[in-house]
Design a protein that fits this description.
Blueprint lengths: L7 E2 L7 E2 L21 E7 L14 H10 L1 E7 L5 H11 L5 E3 L4 H6 L7 H7 L3 H4 L2 H7 L25 E4 H6 L8 H14 L2 E2 L2 E2 L1 E5 L7 H9 L9 E2 L6 E2 L5 H16 L11 H9 L3 E5 L6 H9 L7 E4 L24 E2 L6 H10 L3 H8 L8 E2 L5 E2 L2 H7 L2 H7 L26 H7 L2 H9 L32 H23 L6 H15 L2 H20 L5
Parallel strand pairs: 3-4, 3-5, 9-12
Antiparallel strand pairs: 1-2, 5-14, 6-12, 6-13, 7-8, 10-11, 15-16
Helix pairs in contact: 1-14, 11-12, 19-20, 19-21
């Protein structure tokens, strides 16, 4: 990969003449703060697939302001097309690495291939803001198996009051027509779906769907959620005993049997989406946006575009809201969970970086509160205001504008979620992100969503009756743990086989003809037992969880 340094030369105190190479948008004329006066351009690869990427984020108003503050501009290549694992494997094989990388779920490949620069010494020497934003306990958790820190996590352990929540999503119109029931149990929800679809079989001439789900490609995990969610389990690779920290793993357990038998019953009643296993993600989203999906499995971010369409069309009563639905007998739902700090991925510096010290200084400067405000709040006076007490806030017009995709792209709002950040609040007491402010959170909802909150006497969708009190497992999550190369055969390979079997059998289980479910289940269970040895998996994760408890808290378990 060819690296080009763009140089901006300061000529006078009043104005700057920029020497611009390669068609890069000129950086405006303010003095670079806390950095060399030269504008440095770093290259970067990002595998972030959670948002629609921006073709040139540093050409936006916010991006240009960040360059003024940090003296850095990024030329970013975004992940598109092939799966993340293949893309990153090819990058590593070629040795053609950029200065910075964010590998998302495959970030472990960069670590395992020793392609990254350890940040430990840089944090000690240059981490002015890093040491303020991340506690010693935070930094301890960010250390990988080799003892080094390679990234500063963007996951900081808050449950946002602006979050749409997690769980099984239920249409507002059905809730209102049933006088706002306090939904908790699957056994109470199903008759409600059945009666609603019977009474309202069509919407705008199109069939109403009792329940749908995302099943396509990398998002197949959504249709795996019922197995844990309905049984009150954590959506993680293994389940961990909170007293002994012993891991258990059973891809064909009784909870899974019960969950898909329940969905199979809906299928045979004609209430489950008949196209669920052949439709694309966009086709699923279109159905939600048409206002004809009564309930659906999906994660909060999957619904955003569809909900915005419904809101724009004044059909916000067709928006869905989440409930932590479980089977009767399950005491607590665990769809909404806390994470103390993310330990899987973040932006890292590669060993091919032309100036790793300057690159780290840039990461540290991104934690400057003034830069944090730019990233997450935007431009003062245009995207937010400050009252006489110094509190940052947004008007309703600003909230509405910040939700507009065209304005987001123009301004550069909403594209900075993978970068290091403070936890909850900045040093001046303001929230790091506007969506963490409860006042702004309530203002952002559509009228029908506010009506739901008012009806249930709740302030957010991440509190009862929508979700039980979130837990924060002190050992973190198994899905974050990088499996070392020497353990791939006995750990990762059987986990991949289990996932392949799930992809094969979950559709068959849900679509099994009436009276044939157990027959399909027995075939699935037999194949799981024949192909997967769960003991090494349980032993590996038990050791990892206990090691975390020892390293993080000094708690040792034999």
């Amino acid at each position: 990969m060819k690296f080009i340094r763009k140089i901006s030369i300061v000529v006078a105190l009043v104005f700057i003449i920029s020497a611009v190479l390669g068609g890069i948008v000129p950086v405006s004329s303010q003095k670079v703060e806390g950095a060399s006066k030269k504008i440095v351009t770093f290259t970067m690869f990002s595998a972030d697939a959670t948002v629609q990427y921006h073709p040139d984020i540093f050409s936006t108003a916010i991006g240009q302001e960040i360059t003024k503050k940090t003296g850095v501009r990024l030329k970013i290549e975004h992940f598109v097309g092939m799966d993340q694992a293949t893309k990153i494997s090819l990058m590593l094989a070629s040795g053609d690495l950029p200065d910075l990388v964010y590998g998302s779920g495959e970030h472990k490949q960069f670590i395992q291939n020793k392609a990254l620069v350890p940040l430990d010494n840089y944090i000690a020497k240059y981490g002015q803001w890093t040491k303020k934003a991340y506690s010693s306990a935070d930094l301890k958790k960010l250390r990988q198996a080799d003892g080094h820190i390679y990234f500063l996590s963007y996951t900081r352990g808050e449950v946002s009051p602006s979050a749409s929540g997690e769980g099984l999503y239920v249409m507002i119109d059905m809730l209102q027509k049933n006088n706002w029931p306090r939904l908790k149990y699957w056994e109470d929800l199903v008759p409600m779906i059945r009666n609603y679809v019977k009474k309202y079989p069509k919407y705008k001439g199109m069939p109403v769907i009792g329940m749908s789900a995302i099943t396509e490609g990398a998002r197949f995990y959504v249709i795996q959620d019922p197995a844990t969610g309905l049984n009150g389990l954590v959506a993680d690779t293994v389940q961990v005993d909170p007293k002994t920290y012993k891991a258990s793993y059973d891809p064909a357990g009784i909870g899974m049997y019960k969950a898909y038998k329940a969905l199979n019953a809906l299928w045979n009643e004609g209430l489950f989406d008949k196209e669920a296993f052949v439709q694309t993600y966009d086709q699923w989203a279109a159905k939600v946006a048409q206002g004809r999906v009564v309930t659906s499995w999906g994660r909060s971010w999957h619904f955003n575009t569809a909900f915005n369409t419904l809101r724009k069309n004044n059909e916000d009563d067709r928006i869905l809201v989440p409930f932590g639905i479980v089977f009767k007998g399950v005491k607590k739902s665990r769809y909404v969970m806390l994470q103390s700090i993310g330990t899987r991925d973040g932006v890292s510096i590669t060993k091919k970086c032309k100036d790793p010290v300057r690159a780290f200084q840039f990461l540290d400067q991104m934690l400057n509160p003034e830069v944090q405000k730019l990233m997450f709040w935007g431009i003062k006076g245009r995207d937010y205001l400050v009252d006489k007490k110094g509190k940052m806030y947004r008007t309703q017009a600003m909230i509405d504008k910040a939700r507009d995709p065209v304005y987001q792209k123009q301004e550069g709002l909403g594209y900075w979620n993978i970068w290091p950040r403070w936890q909850l609040k900045l040093p001046d007491g303001n929230y790091v992100k506007p969506e963490l402010d409860p006042d702004i959170a309530y203002m952002q909802w559509a009228p029908a969503q506010k009506k739901v909150l008012d009806a249930y006497k709740a302030k957010t969708f991440v509190e009862p009756p929508f979700a039980d009190e979130p837990e924060s497992p002190p050992w973190g999550y198994a899905w974050e743990i990088n499996i070392p190369p020497e353990k791939q055969k006995e750990i990762q390979v059987p986990l991949n086989i289990a996932n392949d079997l799930a992809r094969k059998y979950i559709p068959m289980l849900i679509m099994a003809p009436k009276g044939k479910y157990d027959e399909v289940w027995n075939k699935y269970k037999a194949e799981v037992r024949a192909k997967i040895n769960t003991k090494p998996i349980e032993e590996f994760y038990t050791q990892e969880m206990r090691q975390r408890m020892a390293d993080w808290y000094g708690i040792k378990v034999k």
